[in-house]
Amino acid sequence: MRKIRIFEHISLDGVIEHDGDYTYGAWTTPYRSPTGAAMLFEAYGPNFDLLLGRHTYDIFSSFWPNAGDFPMANAINAATKYIATHRPGSLEWGPVKHLGDDVIEAVRDLRQTDGPDLIVVGSSTLTSVLLDQGLADEVVLITYPVLLGRGKRLLADSIDARELVFVDSKATPTGLLVNTYRHVGPLKS
Prior knowledge:
Shape: globular
Number of strands: 10
CATH topology: Dihydrofolate Reductase, subunit A
Number of helices: 5
Structural class: alpha/beta
CATH superfamily: Dihydrofolate Reductase, subunit A
Strand content: 25-35%
Number of domains: 1
Mean pLDDT: 90
């Protein structure tokens, strides 16, 4: 059985994407370092596939095929990409597979197959659904020492509270924290 592991780059106040105001569009850039890249690559694991929403797939497909020859780019380009989309005909960056009309059932079936972990990056709509349906095994938050104030949050407002259990934390010299949590399920009151 495959694990589903959600990775999100997030500000201290829970923003994953700054509100269409591209003044701060590259808010993660000052905190990048070789140490952080190595830590993230290690957290992904040596072999993985990607589970992505269409918007994130489009962003990734415009960047990673031309990113150069280095371990993270090579691993992402080699990974099978499983995509939640209503426009499967235009999926060109592969290897790629469309999840079909019933994304939840497709993900449930995919989890039962043999293969590497499924890494979810970005894809906030898909992340919310996976957590709400109890399909995520881990949440890895790459937390940046910034407060952005407004922007897209990690979860949709319609998602019920979730319980996580702390697994591990690592820090980079630039102040990035890579925090790993195991997803337990709905928060008990």
